[in-house]
Amino acid sequence: MIPALSLAASLALAPIGFASDSSSTPNTPNATGSNQSVAPSFTASPVYNVGTSSEQLFLHGEFEVKINPSKYANFNIKIYDSVGRQVSAMSYSGSSPTTLLKSDENLVGPHKIAVTTTPVVANAGTFQVNY
Question: For residue range 98-107, what is the model confidence (pLDDT) as tens digits?
Answer without folding.
Answer: 999 999 999 9
